[in-house]
Amino acid sequence: MQSKTSFFNMALFKKNISRTWIAGLLYFVLLLLMLPVYFVISTANINGDDWYSRLGYTMEMRLFEHMSTMPTTFIAIIISIIVTGITFWYLFNRRDSYMMHSFPVTRRSLFFTGILSSLTVSLVPVILASVIMTIAAAARGCDGLSCIWYWALIVAVSTLLFTAVAIFSLMISGQIVTGIIFYFIFNFLYLMMDIAFRLTASILMWGLSEAMNGIQYRIWTPVLYIPNNAKVFSDVVMDDNYERVIEFKHSFTGGHVLAIYAAAALVIIIVSYQLYRFKKLETVLDFIAVPFMKPVFSVGMSFFISMVAGAFISGMVEALTSLTYDMKYGIAIVSALILGAIIYFATQMLIEKTLRVFCAKKAFACAVYSLAALGVLLCMRLDVLGIENRVPALKDIQWAGIDNNYTMVFTDEMDIEAFRQIHQNFLTDKKELRNINYNYPDVDGKTFSIRYKLKNGDIIIRSYPVINTEASVVSSEYVAATQPILDFVNNPGRIKEHIIGNIWNDCEIKSMDFATLVDVPENNDYYFEYNEFDELSTKERKAKYKRVYEAFLKDIEAGKVFQQDFAGYDYKYDENNKVRLYNSFDFIVRNPDVVYFSDSETFYDNAYGGQTIMHEQSIYAELTVDCTNTLKALKAEGFYTDEDDIITYDEFSKKYENYGYDSEAIDPEAIDAERAEYIFEDPDGDLDPLEAIMN
Question: What percent of the chain has pLDDT over 90?
Answer without folding.
Answer: 68
